[in-house]
Amino acid sequence: MKIPNDKTAIKILKQYHNPVHIIRHCVKVAKVAVFIGNMLRETGCNISIPLLQAGGLLHDVAKYKSVLYGGDHAIIGAKIITDIGYEDVARIVESHVHLDPTLLSAGQICEELVVNYADKRVKHTSVVSLEERFEDLFKRYGHNEKSIKRIDELYRQGLHMEKIIFDRLDIKPIKLNIIFRRNCND
Ligand SMILES: [Fe+2]
Description:
mainly alpha, Hypothetical protein af1432, two-stranded antiparallel ribbon, globular, binds fe (ii) ion
């Protein structure tokens, strides 16, 4: 399995002209995904930390491109990452928006699910609750009935992922806000 290291991942983000606020968001999502991943590993879950790290860093690789030219940033991003040879990371990039519903119904932990969930807990660079993150998404993108329906669908998906993850852990989801508040400036 080919996985880019941090230096390469950041270089790729810059190569696609992502501004610093997007890069900072990606760094925070990677941190949250790895934090959750390490806790899950302690419960015996076989999840790849390097894949969570690279997937978190690169999940929004096409964000800026899609702001400029339109299109689905998850699909465009997955193509970019596939084309440079990181297929396993590309799966995570695509799944951070388009999570295979069978993964949810199976209730199994995988890297796609953890990065998708971590992204739903990071508003810009702050770790927040799903409620707060989606409130922001509704405000920013809930312009019509179709988009409101889609965001609502993603919110329900987020709650489902939260249950799958935290049913295995000893901490409550809200604890993440407290843990990451200590280093909110990084
Ligand atoms: Fe994101």
